[in-house]
Amino acid sequence: MKYLLPTVAGCASVALVGTLAVTAPTAFAATSSPEVSKESLKVSEDGLKAPGARESSESTATAANQSATTNLPNIFKSETALAKAKAPDIVNAAASASATTGTAENVSAGLSSGPDEAESSEESTPSKSEQTPDEDEKSGDQKSEDAEKSEDAEGEGEKDSSEKSESKDDEDISGSVQQKTEDGVNIALISDVLDVPSNNPSLIGFTFSEAKSNIRIQVRVKHGSEWGSWDTLDQEQQEEAQNKGSEPMTVSNASGVQMRILGDSAPSDAELVLVDPKRDAGDAQAVAENAPVDLDQQGSESAEGADDASTDEATDAEATTAENVAATNGATVTNQNYVPGSSTVSTVAKKVSKPKIGSRSSWGAKAYKGSPDYASGIKQAVVHHTSGSNSYSAEDVPGIIRGIQAYHQQGRGWNDIGYNVVADKYGRLWQARGGDISKAVIGAHVSGHNTGTFGISVLGTYNSSAPPKKTRDAVASAIAWKFSINGISKATKSNLVGHRDLGQTDCPGDAFYAKLGEMRSTVNSVLKTGEQPGDKKDDDKSKDDDKKDDSKKDDDKSKDDDKKSDDKKDDDKKSEKSKTEIEKYAAKHKLGKAVGKEHSVKGHKGAKSQKFEKGVVYWSKKTGAYHLTGAIASAYKGDAIADLGLPTSQEKGGLEDGGVAQRFENGSFYWSKDTGAHYTSGTIMNYWGDKGTVKGHLGYPKSDVSYKDGRGEQLFEGARLVWAEGYGTTEFSPKGSIAGGVTDGNAPGDSTPPGDTPTDDDSPADSGEGTADDEDSKDDSKSDDKSKDDSKKDDDKSKDDSKKDDDKKKDEPTKAEKIAAQRASIIKEAKAHLGVKYVWGGTSPKSGWDCSGYTQYVYGKHGIDLPRTTSQQRYAGKEISIKDAKAGDLIWIPGHIGIISETKGQMYDAGSPRTNTTKRSYSWMLDRGAKVIRVVG
User: pTM value?
Assistant: First the structure.
C-alpha cells in the first residue's frame, strides 16, 4: 500500500488524508500545519488489481430534487436552472469552462453502459457509514443498498479482483477490457491504494486542467480489511480557482483510500490531492472555549411540524428589497466599509444578537490571500454540507476546517476557504472565510452566486439523515443574525435555500434539504422577537429581579421561610441551580425518587451515575445525561461498562419483532424478546451494520461481543461472526463454537488468509478470475471409485444357493455405486449450465449467479443443501488432500469456490463477468493454497 498526502477542497466531499503546507497562522498558537500531497494520477496496474477496483459504476440520476429551483424568482436561479439545455447530465470538461453557474457539477450519472436525524455525542464514533448501525442512523434506502452490496461474503473477491499469479493466461484480455468497470464503463485513471492517517481525519480530492470527454470522479474508503462502495464527488467551479476539480471528501477512521476517474479519456494535468490537517494541541482548547449555540425550545416545537407554506410567500416589500440588493451586486469593492443599516439595505427587521462563533485564529486559519471582497449587503443564505465522514469527534473539527482551507487554497488556488461560516454536528459555529463577519464578505461557495449571499456549511454528509436539531438551530441562529443586520425580516424559500437550488448538485443532502422548512420557521421565530432565545432567558431573569425588588421582602428571609411569597419563582430557580445535572435530568424525564446516592462510574474519569425509581442515569461532561431501563440497564455492568463507555442516546423502540436499541460511546445494546439484551461494537458491529443489522439475515445478537489477542467473536441469530486482525470477518454456523485460527471468505484480497501461509505464498484471495485456458487438461476417465467398489464386495453376503437371490442383490446398487451416481449427476448438472452469466449475488441459471450461487444450485438439484456463501460452504463437508480429490468435490480458496470436474486439473465455476460459467484449470487456486472439500460420500 502506498502512502500519499494530498490537498482537496469542495462543497462536500474531500477525503482528509495528506500533508498540507500553508502560511503561518495569524493569531493561533498552532504547532503543526496541514500537510498537502499531490500525485499525478495515471492508470495504476496495482490499483486495477485491487479487490473491487472494477466494481460497477452505479449509474444514477444526476442532481436529485432539482425541481426545487422552480420555487425561486429568476434572479435567484442559476444559469443551469434557467437554461436546462445547457446543463449536461454528467460533467463535460470541455463545456465546463463556460458553465460557471452551480458550484458543484453532480457527475453521478451517464457513464454506464447499459429521514431521521443523526444524533451526536462529542467523541469519535465507531461507525463507517454514519456512526453506529442503529436504524435511526441510516435510511431504509441506504441500508438496502449496503445490504445488497455485501449480501455475499465472497462478493468483493469474486467480482472485482484481477488475477495476480496468471499473467500468461491474462494475455487474451486487452488493456481496454481490464480498464473497464464490470458494467462496461471505461476507467480512464485509477490510483494505487493509498494509506491515510490513523489518528485524525484526512481529505482527498482531484484536480485537472481540461477534459475532452465526460468524466466521473469516484473515491472509495477502506475500513479495516473491508472496502466501502465507490462514491462520486461533485465537481466544484469557482471564479477564483486556478484549475478544475472536485470537492474534497473527509475520511475518518480509515485504513486506506483509492480514487478512479471514469470516462472515455483522461483529463489533462490530472492530480490526486491528499490533505493531512494534523491534530494540534490547541484544538481541544478551541473546542472548549467555543460553546455550542443553545437555542431554547422556543419556536422549535412548532417549527418541527411547521408547514412550509408559512414561509413560502415573501411580502412585496421584501421582494423589492431583494431586487434592489441584487441590482447593486454587479460591482464589488475590496475592503468596502459597509455599515449595516445604510441606505442600500432596508432595515425593517429587528436586530438579533450575534450567536457564539469561534474565531479563525481558534482553529488555526491561514491568512487570506490578498484582501477580502465585500458586497453592499446579503440577499440570500445558502446552506451546504461538506460530505465525507460523519464520524468525527468534537476535537477533530478544527483540523477538518484547516484541511478544507488547505485544499481550497493549495489544491485549487482559491484565496481562502469558500464558506463564510462552518457548523459542526455538536452545534458549534466557526468563522471560516476571512474578513469582517458582520459584513457581506464575498465567499466562494456557489459559483455565479457568491456576491450578496451568506454561505454556511455543516461538516458531514446528510443524504440519509439530517444533522442533529442542535446543529440546525445553530445554523438558523447565524442566518437570523445575518438577516437582521441586512434588513431581511422573514426567511422564505427564495432567500434561505440549499446549494442544490442554485447549482447541479445534491448538496446539502436529501435529509438536510428536507429540514430547510423547519429552519426557516426557526429563523422567523428569532426574527419576530429580535432576540436569540438565549437573550430571552437573560431578560426573564431581569424581570424576576425587578419583581423581587418590588416585593420589598428580605431575600434571606424569603429563601428560608416565605415559600409562598412573590419570590417563590426566584427561590425555585436557585434551588434548581443547586441540583446536579443528574437530578435535573431525572426530574425532566420523570424518573421518580432517587433510590441511591450519586456515585462515580468505575473506569470513566469524571462520569457519575445515580439510580432512580424508573431508571439509572449516567452522566459525563462529554456525553451529557441519559438513562437506562429494563433489560439493558440490567445487562450494562462489568465488561459492558468498560467496553462501551457511557450511553449517548435514549432507548429506541420499534425495531424488528418489537426490539429496542440504545447507543453508547463505543457501541450499542440491542434487545429482543427471543435474545435478551446484548451489546456489540467495533469491526463486528460495522460488519453487522453492512448486513442490515436486525433487518438482515444475521438478526439480533445472542451474546456480547468479545475481542482478545487480535481476534473477535459474537453470536447472532443467523450466524457466528469471527474477526481476525488483518484478515477480516467471517460468518460461521450459529451452532457450536469456533476455536483457533479462522479463514475469511470476505477478505478484500491484500493479505494472506490465516492458516494458508505455507502454500499460499502470500497471494491474495481471488475473485474467481483465474486462468481461462485448458492447457493442463488431460482426460482422466478412469473412475477412482472402482477400487472402493471392489473393496466392499467382501461385505456382500449374496453368495447363497439361490440364483434368484443373487440376481436381486446385483440389481440393488451398493453404497459406493450410489455415491458414484450422485457424483456423476452433479457433474452432468454442472455441465448443463456452462455459459450462464456471472451475476454477483445471483443464485439461478435464469438470472445468473456468482460462484457460491452456482455450487449451491447444482448441489441442491441433487438433494444436498449447501449454505449460501463460500466461507460457509468451506465447512459444509470434510477437508481432504488434493491427491484424493474426485469429480464432484468442491475446491475452495478465500472468496471463491468451484466444482472439481471429471477432467484432471480442471473445475466448473462461475468466476467473473469475463469468464461467466465455464470449465477451466484450477492450478491458479492451488497456487493460493486451495482446499478440497468433500460433501458427497
Answer: 0.46
